[in-house]
Amino acid sequence: MATRETIEAVLAGAVERARACGEGEPATYIPELANAPLDALSAAITLRDGSIVRAGDDEHRFTFQSSAKLVLLAGLLEERGEDEVFRIVGREPSGGGFASLARLETHGPIPANPLINPGAIALASILEGHLEDRLAWIERWAERLYGDALPIQQRVLASERRTGDRNRSIAHFLKASGVIDGDVDEVLEVYFALCSIEGSVVEASRLAAILATGGLAPRSGERVLSQRTASTVVSIMATCGMYDESGAYLCATGLPAKSGVSGVIVAVATGRGGIAVASPRLNKKGGSVRGHLVLREISRELGWHFALPD
Amino acid sequence: MATRETIEAVLAGAVERARACGEGEPATYIPELANAPLDALSAAITLRDGSIVRAGDDEHRFTFQSSAKLVLLAGLLEERGEDEVFRIVGREPSGGGFASLARLETHGPIPANPLINPGAIALASILEGHLEDRLAWIERWAERLYGDALPIQQRVLASERRTGDRNRSIAHFLKASGVIDGDVDEVLEVYFALCSIEGSVVEASRLAAILATGGLAPRSGERVLSQRTASTVVSIMATCGMYDESGAYLCATGLPAKSGVSGVIVAVATGRGGIAVASPRLNKKGGSVRGHLVLREISRELGWHFALPD
Amino acid sequence: MATRETIEAVLAGAVERARACGEGEPATYIPELANAPLDALSAAITLRDGSIVRAGDDEHRFTFQSSAKLVLLAGLLEERGEDEVFRIVGREPSGGGFASLARLETHGPIPANPLINPGAIALASILEGHLEDRLAWIERWAERLYGDALPIQQRVLASERRTGDRNRSIAHFLKASGVIDGDVDEVLEVYFALCSIEGSVVEASRLAAILATGGLAPRSGERVLSQRTASTVVSIMATCGMYDESGAYLCATGLPAKSGVSGVIVAVATGRGGIAVASPRLNKKGGSVRGHLVLREISRELGWHFALPD
Amino acid sequence: MATRETIEAVLAGAVERARACGEGEPATYIPELANAPLDALSAAITLRDGSIVRAGDDEHRFTFQSSAKLVLLAGLLEERGEDEVFRIVGREPSGGGFASLARLETHGPIPANPLINPGAIALASILEGHLEDRLAWIERWAERLYGDALPIQQRVLASERRTGDRNRSIAHFLKASGVIDGDVDEVLEVYFALCSIEGSVVEASRLAAILATGGLAPRSGERVLSQRTASTVVSIMATCGMYDESGAYLCATGLPAKSGVSGVIVAVATGRGGIAVASPRLNKKGGSVRGHLVLREISRELGWHFALPD
C-alpha cells in the first residue's frame, strides 16, 4: 500500500502532466456548460482513513451531471432493495450511446442500466410524494454521500430544462411503454435537479471513497451503504459507467468510474480510496480528456488496477 | 485471506447445493454437446500458491468452447501487442448476443470485443503461416496457459464444422468488410479447433489463476503473461465475458469470468486464485445454471467480490 | 370500364361478405376508439363523374386518424412545394412500425416518410402562425379535400391528448434532432386535431377520388391539386400507406391506400374513382380486417389492380 | 395513347439529354463490372403490340445483375404459387440496403422481399435437382421472359464468385436460421449465374413488356405469366425494386422498376409497354444516374405515371 506522500506526489504529477494536454471541447448541448472555465483542472482522492489528497484548481466547482446518477442508484438500492430497482432498469451495458431510444424500442421496455439517461429517468420516477418531497430525497442522499449539503446550480438547471428535449423524448417513451407512471414533467424536474448538483472534487471523491470501502464513511467508518449496495454500484460502474468507452477505460485504468458531461469522473479504487477528477474538455465520447489521463497515471503509478494483486 | 480449509469447505458446500438444482438444458446447436452427461458438475480452484482445491465429478471432461477465446486473446496480446489486437477488435460490451451480425453492420466494421464470436474469428485470422502452423500456435498457447498439452475433441470439432453456418456467415461478413483476409475456411478451422480443446476444470482453473496473479504461473511464480496482458484480459472478461448477462453476473459475484456453451465458466479472483466450474445445464442466455450458483456462493462466503475490500 | 350498376353490385356483395368476418379487435391505445360500434361497416366509392356508390351502415361516423395525414401532405405539397416538404421528411418506406423512434435514431434525423407518425408530426410543425391559424389551415384543407366542413371529435381529441406519450416522445426527439422548431405541445395539438377529424366514408372517398383523377374535384372537374401533388401522394400511399403490410396489401389489391386506426382505409383506383371503407376491427398490424376484404374483392371483381391493363 | 412516332421522339430526346450527364461511377465491388464502357447508354421500349423502339448504343451488352431477380421471382410464382414463395420471403420494403444482414437478424428469419439479395438467395435455394438442373431452370425461364437464349457472362461470373463474401455471409446466415437447406455453395452458384445473364436492353425490355400487359407475350399475345403473377411482380417492383430510393423513384416516374448494379433499369408502364435503360454510371444508392433521367423524362413527356389517368 502506497504511503500518503507517494499518493500526493503521484496525483500532483499526474495533474501537472494532464494540464499540458489541450485537446477536447466542453459539452455544448447544455448551453450553460459551455461557460465553464475551459482549462480548469482539479483532482482529489479521499483515502480510506478519511484524509484527502488534492491537486489542481482548488476553487473549481462544477455540476455533477451524470455522475450524480450514482446517488439515485445507491439511495434507491438502500431503501427499496434490488428487486424493486432491477424491475425497472437492467444491469447490462447498453452497447450504445447514453441517450439512445433505439435500444429501448428494440430491447426494452426497461432501460439497459441505471447509468444511462433512460435508466436514471426511470429510477427518478419511483421517488414518492410531492415534487418537493422527491427533491428533498435527492438532497438528503446527496448530503449523505457527498458529505455536505450541496446546492442545485440554478443557471445549469434552467439550461437543462430549456434544452432537455432528448430527455423529454425518453421520459414520454418510457411512459408510453408503461415503465414509468405519473407526471413526466415532474420526473424530469427531479432528473434535471439531480444533474445540477454543484460541488467540487472533494465532495465527489467522498462518494467514491464510500464505494471503495464497501459502504463505510471515510474517517468515521460509519456504515452508509450496505456491502451489497456498494458492490452492486461499483460493478455497474465497471461495466456501464463510461458509456461506450467503458471497456477501453476499464482496461486502461481498472478503476470503475462514472463520468459526467461537465467533465467530472468519479472513480473507485477498492480498498484504497475514492478519486474525482474534473476538467471540462471532453473527448468525442463525452469523457473528460484530462480526467482519463490523470486516472491512467494514478492507476499505473500506484498499481491500483482492480485486476492486479497488491 | 481465507485458509485452504475454509476454501475447501466453501467449494464443497457450494457444489453440493448447486447439484440440487435441476434447471437448464444443455446446448443443442452444436449437436455433439447434447451428448454431454447432463448432470455432471465439477469445480476447481487453483490458488495463488499453486495448490488446487477440487469438488464434484473428477472425471468430467468437456470442451472449453468460448472460454478458450481467452487463450487466443492472451497469446496475441503477448505476441502482437495491444495496438495490433485492438485494431481489429474493440474492447466494448456489444449489448447483444454472442453471434450477432446486426451489430457488425450497424457499428462495425470491427467486432465489439474479442470474446464474442466475430471478435474471436477476427483474431483467429491474424495467426500466421500454414494451417498447421496456426493450429500449432493454438496448441502452444493452450499448453502454456492450461499447463498441459490438451487434445482437440474430434467429434465436437466435426459437429462444429458441420453446423457452423452462423460462424461461417460471420467470417464471410468480416471478409466482405475488409476486417479479415485470406482463406475463410482456414480461419474457421482454427476457430473451431480452439473451441474444441478438451480438458477438465483443473486445467481451466490454471488459466484463471495466471490471470488472478497478474500473469504468474501458479507454484513456480514464473511470468507467463505481462501484467498489462493479464489486466486487459480480466477487464474484458468483467465487461464482456458473460454475453448479455455480464452485468448481472458481475454484480452478483464480482468475479470476472468467461463462459462456454459446454457449461464451463472460468472466473478470476484477483490476488486469490482462479476458479473453473463446469455443468452442461444452461440458462436461456447460455450460461451454466449451476456454475452461476457455485460462483455466487464462493463470492459471498469467501468475500471474493472484486468491489469489496479485504 | 365497369358500369355504375356493376360497381354497385360488387360493392354491396363485398360489404355483405366482409360482414361475415368477425375477426380483429378495435384499437385500444386511444381509449375513446374502443367505444366505436364494433361491427359497424360502411363503404363508399366516389366515381370520376362525382356519383357516389355506398354500402353498409350509412350512419357510421368515425375519426379519420392517420388517413388524414393525406390532407396535411397534399396541402403542404401544394403550398410549399416538394423541395420544402421533402427537406423534412423522406419518401421511403420505413420498413418498420408507424411510431418507431429507433429508425429516427439510426437512419434519421428526418422521418422516413410523411405517412408515419414522425413524418406527419414533422410536417405539422411547419404550419405557420398562432395555433388558431394552424388549426384553421387544417380545417381549410380538410374541407377542400373532403368536400365538407368536418368537425373535430372532442372526446377522441381528449383521449389522444391524454394518452399521446408515444407521439410526445417522437415530437421531442425531432426537436432534439433539430428537425422541428417551436413549441412541441402546439405541434402535437395540431397533429391530434388532424387525427380527430370526424366524418363518414362519403367524405373520405371524395379525397381519394381527387387523387384518382390526378387532382380534379369530382363532378365539377375543377382542379384541387396539381397532377404533381396528386401523383406524389398516391406514390407514397403505394409504398408507405399501410405501414408494415404495405407490400402485401399492394400485391393483393393494387389500390394505393392509407389506413387509420379507427379502421378506415382510403384507397385510390386511378382513372376510376376513390374508395373508403371503415370498420373498427383491426388486424395485428393495425389495418381494418374487413376493409382489406372489401378492397381485395373490389380489385379482383372490377379488375382495378394498378398493375393490370384495362 | 401516344403514337409510336411520339414515343420514338421522346425516347431519342431523353437519351440524348441524359448522355450529357457525366455524374456517377460504375460499381466496383464486382471488379469485372468496372470494365464496362463507362459512357455506354442504351434504351429500348417494347410496346404492347410487340414493336420495339430503341435509342442509344445498339451494341451495348451488359449483365442483368439484380434485374434478373425478376426472372426467378416470376418463374417460381408460376410454378410454385404464392403460398410457397411467400413462405420463405416477404413482400415488404426492407427500409434498408440490398445486402443487409441486420434486418434478417432483427426482423427475420425470412428476408423482407424477393428483390434484395437475401430474398433472391432464399428463392434460389428452392430450385430442385442437381446444380445442372437448377441452372437449366434459370436458362429456361430467362429465355421465356427475355425472348432469347442468353449467355452467362463467364468473366463476370468468375468475378462474382471471387468477391461474393457478402452474399456468402447472407446464404450461411439463412442456412443457420433454417430458411434455406442444402449446399450453400450450390445455391450461390445459381444466384451468381442468375446475376451474370448477359443481354441488351431489347431483351430486358421484353420482360418488362410481359409484365406491362398482365402477362402476355408481346406480338403473339400468348400468355406467359398469369395475371396474378404479373401484378404481384409489378407490385413488389413498385415498393421494393429500387432499394432505398424506391419511394423517391416511384414519386418521380410512376414506373415500377428493378435496377441492377451493371446500370440497367427495367421499368413497367402498365398497358403501354416495357422499358429498359442501361448505363454503368451509378449514383450513391446503386441506381443508374442516366437511367433515372431517361425514365423521368419518358414518364413526364408521355404521361406514363401509374398514378395519373389517361
From TrEMBL, chains A, B, C, D:
It catalyses: L-glutamine + H2O = L-glutamate + NH4(+). Substrate binds at residues 66, 117, 160, 167, 191, 243, 261. Its EC number is 3.5.1.2. The keyword Cell division does not apply. The keyword Hydrolase applies. InterPro entries: Beta-lactam/transpept-like, Glutaminase. GO terms for molecular function: glutaminase activity. GO terms for biological process: glutamate biosynthetic process; L-glutamine catabolic process. It is an enzyme of class 3 (hydrolase). Keywords: Acetylation, Hydrolase. It comes from the Bacteria. Belongs to the glutaminase family. Homotetramer. HAMAP family: Glutaminase (MF_00313). NCBIfam families: Gln_ase (TIGR03814). This is Glutaminase. The lineage of its organism: Bacteria, Pseudomonadati, Myxococcota, Polyangia, Polyangiales. The gene is glsA.
